[in-house]
Design goal:
heterotrimer, A: 477 residues, Amidase signature (AS) enzymes, eleven-stranded mixed sheet, 16 helices, 11 strands, 14% strand, C: 94 residues, alpha+beta, Histone, subunit A, 3 helices, 36% helix
């Protein structure tokens, strides 16, 4: 077995036993990237100095970073022509926390994290390692695909409406969206400030806990980050699920959810029951309104957040502008892709006078209801179990021209961001075409520890990683 | 109808930069000037991913201002984004406050010809200042300097209670004085740290509905504001008298032409799309916090004024002028502490010092000597060391060189001649040279005495003690 | 409810975007669909419900008024395609 196929905790064990050194690990990944990147296309930029940086003293297990997290000295493009040459003058707080780790590269994504397939990257389409004609999901598609294809040991993604969990589910890896405020957003290029969170995408649950340990924590540079006692998320992984009350919200299993996906998730529920958990059906009535609420709030914030890309201080600047208005309009029109512009227009619309009350304000009221509903549910249940995505990975090109259909791919994940809750996606099997299916566990605020040990219990029992490997299937050949 | 049938209604939105050490949302210094873009960081330069964190002093200063202007302080307050594109606004939104300002429903009192008047304050909110654009005079470029971007401001919005330019000026001066007294803003108008947007409308006196208003933005001199209001009111009256209608629009004051000019940028109606700033938490102000600030609030101009009138018997007019500026008022109190002669200190400030300020076109904060120096100068007069006319010269020197009064007197030999023998010898000399004046005096022409004293002063370059001169000349002439 | 082309053009203006004729067509159509979908929230009864103001109710997150200069000033200017004398240059604004 190649080193690059191991999990981080396995690599660390070997390092501790001095069986290998860090350079061996880096070499193995570099080799793997050379082999697989041409067909997967997960990277926006690859660090050519990785080995040198190990020689210079980096000691952490290398990592891949979604390209919307600012890295000093390495380009941060958000997969947008707008930031094609942008080098951040500072490191994101999570990068400061990971400064000991070699960055293997910056990973592809939907432009400014807007999308669910990574097809909206201005640079390249990333392919799903399980079947190269399929999308890896999005927006953290590059991160999920790279972890799945063993091109990075682990990666950081960001999740605004499902952007960590859905690609993790499409690519058969573990992805955690932490509670809003647990991980600093400082240095994460904002899509929707009240929804964005950075989180780990890893090969297994243990790695997820290790990475969460590294990135979580209060940051005085992020006013929305929360002061809570630091925790070791690896400590109670073996706790088990006995007596744990898991709710199964009916709304997540209705129309629009693929049959195979539904069946797979119900199997997961059965498994938990066998392990001693108490499974009970429940309702999340606000689910039906969550998607509309999400798109109104996310686009409203995005329309404002993306105002700073004006061609003046950084980023794409159109040639030959006669006046300042032209400078703005030409730079932004040429620098942003179609989906970004669509969302800016939508966001501008819902904030504009005459529509603010009907859309933005109304959506914020529904948001309160969503929060209240989850709050009530977590008085009764420890966790909720749902599919991560209504379908498995779809074919490249099938949804990219239909925005609304693409938005529907987020149906299972957006409520969690609206309520600011943590949720994790765990692979639980393959469909008949060999594509991974993921399930989602949703917890109360700051219940990451519970999410992780519950996920761990399942992972131990089912051993997805040992059973299945991405096949790099190529339908065309 | 005549102008007298109309009244001018003025609303003012004052922007005052707070004198915190750092910017409102980042730790960059607020210092004025400096190399372009040298007081900047990823936050105030709106780099992707950078986030704001609110400066606690900004809240303290804004609450202080609110209390000093009799406002209610909000228990819960929030920040909002105001979205528009302009090159001095790097995020393309300004973090301001929309519907939950820190302070509201206050007032300040001004003096008008008809007596005291309360001008209502709708609200005071916090926001960030924009950067600066520099222009290439002959070329086709402008340059963006973001040193000022993110400097904290409070915006003080008045009710439409102000009538005419005079009241507007009184109100502005009062607000400025209050901010200076409580030391939350240095209100340097030339540096733009105290400026105002002016709303003007007119209506016939019997009307109870306001007329359509026009707005003149970003004015930073009292004189220009007064001129603008007078001009704009007259313009509006003329339009109405000629059967026209006032258009609601933003105007610009053209100093050279002395008129308001339409900005005419109506291509697209502005829509700021305010919404709550998701990057910042809410602001909660407790009663205890407000009480603590109240307790530590320095004495305000209105209270000082009353005290000057009752304790020191200053005329109301003088007390008003002196307390209108923290610097003048502090000068008064400081000098008084030394010389214990309120009438004299007040007279010096009202005549020579204000005269010198006007002549030099400088603000009271730029007075180059201390209150102690002024006190010392008055002590020198009261002790008879120098005459009042010499003192005037000394004061001029103090303005020029900032030297201490006793140094100036020594350096230029200005000590008063009060020795009786010397003065008598001098009188003899002058009388011998002017026999005609003696005859005139004896024949009852009193002006002859004045002439003789004048000659003696000329001889001594003003240093002779005038009281002594008068006494000795009279003695000699009456012999 | 319909979204008009004029509205799409107005939104683009507010957002400083140029749209081609084709884009106006396409976005108007997309917006109609999306807004029709967004209208589902109109059915939610939100009587007596306050709107969420911020994601997690944090209060009084303040910073001390102490100067901390950003060290790498050069890096702040390096990404500008046009800067002169430490300033970003733009077409003349009157």
């Amino acid at each position: 077995m190649e080193l690059c196929e191991l999990t981080v905790h396995e690599l660390e064990e070997k390092l501790n036993k001095k069986e290998i050194n860090l350079k061996d690990i880096v070499k193995s990944y570099e080799q793997r990237i050379r082999e697989k990147e041409p067909e997967v296309q997960a990277f926006v930029s690859i660090n050519e100095d990785a080995q040198k940086q190990v020689e210079q003293g980096k000691t952490g297990i290398p990592i891949g970073i979604k390209d919307n997290i600012c890295t000093k000295g390495i380009k941060t493009t958000c997969s947008s022509k707008m930031l094609e040459n942008f080098v951040s003058p500072y490191d994101a707080t999570v990068m400061e926390k990971l400064q000991n780790h070699v960055i293997l590269g910056k990973l592809n994504m939907d432009e400014f994290a807007m999308g669910a397939s990574t097809e909206y990257s201005a640079f390249k389409k990333t392919h799903n390692p399980w079947n190269l004609s399929k999308v890896p999901g999005g927006s953290s598609g590059g991160s999920a695909a790279a972890v799945s294809a063993d091109m990075v040991p682990w990666a950081l993604g960001s999740d605004t409406g499902g952007s960590i969990r859905q690609p993790s589910s499409f690519c058969g890896v573990v992805g955690l969206k932490p509670t809003y405020g647990l991980v600093s957003r400082y240095g994460l290029v904002a899509f929707a400030s009240s929804l964005d969170q950075i989180g780990p995408i890893t090969k297994d649950v243990t790695d997820c806990a290790i990475l969460l340990n590294k990135i979580a924590g209060y940051d005085e540079k992020d006013s929305t980050s929360i002061k809570i006692q630091p925790k070791d998320y690896t400590k109670n992984l073996q706790k088990g699920v006995k007596e744990l009350k898991i709710g199964i919200p009916k709304e997540y299993f209705g129309e629009g959810i693929n049959n195979e996906v539904r069946e797979a998730i119900l199997q997961v529920a059965k498994k938990y029951e066998q392990m001693g958990a108490i499974i009970e059906e429940c309702n999340v009535a606000t689910t039906n309104y969550a998607l509309a609420t999400y798109y109104i709030i996310a686009c409203a914030e995005a329309s404002s957040n993306l105002g700073r890309f004006d061609g003046i201080r950084y980023g794409y600047r159109a040639e030959h502008c006669n006046n300042i208005k032209e400078l703005y309009r030409n730079s932004r029109s040429e620098g942003f892709g179609q989906e970004v512009k669509r969302r800016i227009i939508l966001g501008t619309y819902v904030l504009s006078s005459g529509y603010y009350d009907a859309y933005y304000k109304k959506a914020q009221k529904v948001r309160t209801q969503v929060k209240q509903e989850f709050k009530r549910l977590f008085e009764k249940y420890d966790l909720l179990l749902t599919p991560t995505s209504p379908t498995v990975a779809f074919n490249i090109g099938t949804k990219s021209n239909n925005p609304l259909e693409m938005y529907l791919a987020d149906i299972c994940t957006v409520s969690i961001n609206i309520a600011g809750l943590p949720a994790i996606s765990i692979p639980c099997g393959l469909d008949k075409d060999g594509m991974p299916i993921g399930f989602q566990l949703i917890g109360n605020s700051f219940s990451e520890e519970k999410l992780l040990y519950t996920a761990y219990a399942y992972e131990k029992e089912e051993n997805f990683r040992e059973k299945y490997k991405p096949q790099f299937k190529n339908d065309k050949t | 109808m005549s102008n007298g049938d109309y009244e001018t209604i003025v609303g003012l939105e004052i922007h005052a930069e707070l004198s915190t050490k750092t910017k409102i949302f980042c730790s960059c210094p607020t210092e004025f000037g400096g190399e372009p873009n040298s007081h900047c960081c990823p936050v105030c330069m709106a780099m992707p991913g950078a986030l704001p964190v609110l400066n606690e002093k900004v809240i303290e200063y804004a609450v202080k201002a609110g209390i000093a202007m009799n406002c209610e302080i909000a228990e819960i307050s929030k920040n909002d984004r105001k979205n528009y594109f302009y090159p001095d606004l790097p995020k393309s939104y300004q973090i301001s406050q929309y519907d939950m300002p820190l302070c509201k429903n206050g007032y300040v009192e001004i003096d008008t010809k008809e007596g005291k008047k309360k001008i209502g304050i709708t609200r005071i909110h916090i926001e960030e200042d924009a950067g600066k654009l520099n222009h290439d005079e002959f070329g086709k470029k402008s340059f963006v300097d973001l040193n000022r971007a993110g400097v904290p401001l409070i915006e003080i919005v008045s009710e439409p209670d102000i009538r005419g330019a005079e009241e507007a000026e009184a109100y502005l001066k009062k607000v400025k004085a209050i901010l200076e007294y409580i030391e939350v803003s240095d209100c340097k108008m030339q540096e733009g740290s105290f400026r105002a947007d002016v709303n003007v409308s007119v209506r016939k006196k019997e009307d109870n509905k306001y007329g359509t208003r026009t707005e003149i933005k970003n004015m930073n001199s009292f004189r220009a504001i007064v001129n603008t209001i007078s001009y704009e009111a007259q313009r509006q009256i003329n339009v109405i008298e000629n059967g026209g209608k006032i258009e609601q629009e933003t105007l610009r004051w053209d100093e050279l032409q002395g008129q308001t000019i339409s900005m005419r940028d109506k291509e697209d109606a502005q829509d700021y799309r305010y919404f709550p700033e998701p990057d910042l938490g809410l602001i909660k102000i407790t009663k205890e916090y407000v009480e603590k600030i109240k307790e530590n609030l320095p004495e305000l101009p209105e209270s000082r004024k009353k005290r000057y009138i009752s304790e020191y018997n200053l005329p109301e007019y003088d007390a008003n002028i002196i307390t209108s500026s923290k610097y003048l008022s502090n000068l008064f109190e400081g000098a008084l502490a030394i010389c214990k002669n309120p009438k004299s200190v007040s007279n010096w400030i009202m005549s020579d010092i204000i005269g010198a300020l006007n002549e030099r076109e400088i603000e009271p904060d730029k007075i180059p000597f201390s209150a102690k120096d002024l006190g010392d100068l008055i002590v020198l007069i009261d002790k008879g060391t120098i005459s009042t006319s010499i003192a005037k010269k000394v004061l001029q020197k103090m303005f020029e060189t900032s030297e201490k009064p006793d140094e100036i007197i020594k350096k230029y030999g200005l000590v008063q001649i009060s020795d009786e023998d010397t003065i008598r010898k001098l009188a003899h000399k002058i009388l011998e040279a002017n026999p005609k004046s003696i005859i005139d005096y004896k024949s009852g022409k009193d002006h002859a005495l004045g002439f003789l004293i004048g000659q003696a002063m000329k001889e001594t370059k003003g240093k002779a003690n005038p009281r002594l001169l008068d006494q000795i000349f009279k003695e000699e002439l009456n012999k | 409810m319909n979204v008009s082309k004029e509205e799409v053009i107005h939104m683009a203006n507010l957002a400083s975007l140029n749209l081609t004729e084709n884009e106006i067509e396409k976005y108007t159509k997309d917006m109609e669909e999306i807004i029709a979908f967004a209208n589902t929230i109109k059915n939610v009864n939100t009587e007596n419900i306050n709107e969420s103001i911020i994601a997690n109710e944090t209060y009084n997150v303040f910073r001390k008024d102490e100067v901390k200069e950003f060290e790498d000033k050069e890096a702040l200017l390096k990404n500008a395609s046009k800067n002169e004398n430490g300033m970003f240059h733009i077409p003349k604004v009157i």
